[in-house]
Design goal:
268 residues; alpha+beta; Rossmann fold; Tumour Suppressor Smad4; six-stranded antiparallel β-sheet
């Protein structure tokens, strides 16, 4: 696969110097690739998305690729950059965009929240969906169901439902397993559970999971967060459904590093 036009998305916080962005644009031009910045891209028919930043910027940018069924590449200008394919020092490897590259499909999850029969929110997540108590709120009482069957009740700070991509992010910090991104699975991990024996669980990618808010009216509402962004409040009886999305995110692969080699380099 090759590309001729790319959309450049840099950190919305504006932390990177203009010269850094221009350096990437100049390198793309050197390889015969036309580029346009996200803020100046109206009517621009791009072939791929190039992200300049870390994992947070990647999470902000991936809908641009997902919605248009375009591949995406992240160049690490941030700190950890676990989802980054290239580092800032490896810009010469952008020549692969013209010479030919492969892509790796990443599973996404579709998240919907309902209050009775009313749809109150929906989102697509690359990393995870979280139902949790607010910072100053009461402990969350949550029920987990899989394919309409009861699985577990949690008294906890919340519950994380992660993709393989997200298994090395928030879910890992909460004690969940790391899942190879070439696999398809859904991981559920409680956050600081107040129940003996509560453990992270891995479900089939075909599973339909539901998190039911059991908090009584006298307790504070919980919140639904997807990829680090607050989506909506979750009140008593609300149901958050999580299932595999029909579409995938295609990530551009240039280097041949194995999944666990990258994990070791980034996490050590």
């Amino acid at each position: 696969m090759t590309v001729n036009k790319v959309l450049v998305f840099n950190s919305p916080k504006g932390r990177f110097k203009e010269n850094d962005i221009k350096e990437v644009e100049a390198k793309l031009l050197e390889f015969g690739i036309e580029s346009r910045r996200y803020t100046e891209a109206e009517g621009f028919d791009y072939d791929a998305v190039i992200v300049l930043g870390g994992d947070g910027t990647m999470l902000n940018a991936f809908p641009l690729a997902y919605n248009e069924s375009k591949p995406i590449l992240c160049i690490n200008f941030g700190t950890l950059g676990y989802m980054s394919e290239l580092e800032k020092s490896e810009l010469n490897m952008l020549s692969a965009l013209k010479d030919g590259f492969e892509t790796e499909k990443r599973m996404l999850i579709k998240v919907t929240a309902k209050r009775g029969n009313e749809l109150i929110a929906q989102a697509i997540a690359l990393n995870e969906a979280v139902v949790a108590r607010p910072a100053d709120g009461d402990i969350a009482f949550l029920e987990l169901k899989c394919d309409n069957a009861a699985v577990c009740d949690y008294r906890a700070d919340g519950v994380i439902v992660a993709t393989p991509t997200g298994s090395s992010a928030y879910a890992m910090s909460a004690g969940g397993p790391i899942i190879d991104t070439k696999l398809e699975a859904i991981c559920v991990c409680p956050i600081c559970p107040h129940v003996m024996g509560a453990r992270a669980m891995v479900f089939s990618p075909n599973s339909v999971l539901e998190i039911v808010n059991l908090n009584g009216e006298e307790r504070t509402d919980n919140i639904l967060v997807c990829d680090g962004k607050a989506v909506c409040q979750i009140k008593q009886g609300d149901v958050v459904k999580i299932e595999r999305s029909d579409k995938y995110l295609e990530m551009i692969k240039i280097k041949k590093d194995a999944f666990y080699e990258i994990l070791y380099k980034k996490m050590s």
